[in-house]
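Exercise 7. Predict the structure of Bifunctional NAD(P)H-hydrate repair enzyme from Rhizobium lusitanum.
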Amino acid sequence: MFAMITPLADLLLSPDDMAAVDRDAAASGIDSYQLMEKAGQAVAASALRHFPEALRYVVLCGPGNNGGDGYVAARALRQSGVEVGLFHVGDPRRLKGDAARAFADCPIEGEAIRNYAPRPGDVAIDAIFGAGLSRPVPDEVTAVVARTAEAEVPVIAVDLPSGVDGRSGHVLGAAFHAERTVTFMTRKPGHLLLPGRDLCGALEVFDIGIPARIVRAHSDGMIAENTPAQWQEKIPSAGTDTHKYKRGHLVVFSGGPSATGAARMSAMAGLKAGAGLVTIASPEDAMAVNAGMLTAIMLHTVEDDASLREWLADRRLSTFVLGPGFGAGEKARRFCLALADRHLVLDADGITSFRDDPQILFDAFAEGPTRLVLTPHEGEFARLFPDIAADGALSKVDKARAAAARAHAAIIYKGADSVIAAPDGRVLINANAPPWLATAGSGDVLAGIVGGLMAQGAPAFEAAAAGVWLHGLAGQRAGKGLTAEDLVASVTPF
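Solution. The predicted structure, encoded as tokens:
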């Protein structure tokens, strides 16, 4: 579990866990209909607050409790004096429990959802399925999704846009693209994982009054949003007695004379992240190129694995980055395996070098504390973990978690929704990365930041998570149109 108590706002519960929270809240004596009442009222308030110009609020109600929230919202909107249209999936007279009561209390006569024809000035409230959907949406809902999108009707989703899997963020056939989503108590992974995150629009988390102890009882504490609260206490901070050797020595391997830039980007990022010393390990034929471009970063000749092993007699060389611009192949494999007793961030070409036999890599780092950080993007992930990548039933969280356990490594499964996983099952989903981070050299900078944090003594998982977050923060600071050079300049340590 995460060392600190995760704030409720950062917690992520699966749809099944949230359903269990609702059941336990009712069993504890809390009036479950009053919870539905608060949820529906919150949705109505959001609609009126953010879309006061609407000529008609159209509430689309499903066959379960999400629909019940919709019937409450429709009643609240009617009571406020605005025009309300109501359309339902299935026969609402067959609803049960709180949803049946919400339908009975709603004074608006609804129509079948197939009859909804968007009009100019409509704002739609999607209360059809929410987060609990596990199968493709029915054809009549697919048709409404298409008509609503074609008419450019703004959508407010209740809990999660219908058609988005709350566990994985995947689209189940078709899904509304909401401008706003109102969810309750805490979020689901599908609120942060793509494409679900984009389909949610602006997200509001509304406290409907379920005690935090009940919510936390159904969280295993193993998954959350990637924020400083999850790892900051494990990231070393500089004290008054610090010196460069206490802040660690990071080594970044350079490629040949025509492929040195990536290593320099990584090295400078590690230095900016707080490493006390950074050295580029360069082949002889690239020494002149690197020397002409380096100032604060040191340079050391490493021609082959024999010279590497000789240099490794210096135990102060604790942390290494291998991959950026290095070239894939036998040399990368030999260097990596020579570093099995050190801390290693393996990126890019380093990852690809093990595509034919990844188990050699995993076996080398299998014993003892986690020392290896892998930073694959989608394609590199599939090279190391082809069976996991091909399993369509797994979410990105599931895949990263399985990969971390197999490799005994901290995994940064990169993307706009990067997932960071530890071998013990802890997972963080990152959400602070701006889209303009997708640029050449961005991954090299990330590898260097993670390496710089590990060199200072941060554990592999916490260094990986903090590195991803700092990388996103640097991207925000650098702004649109950034280059990798801009990104490095925007990296700041804690």
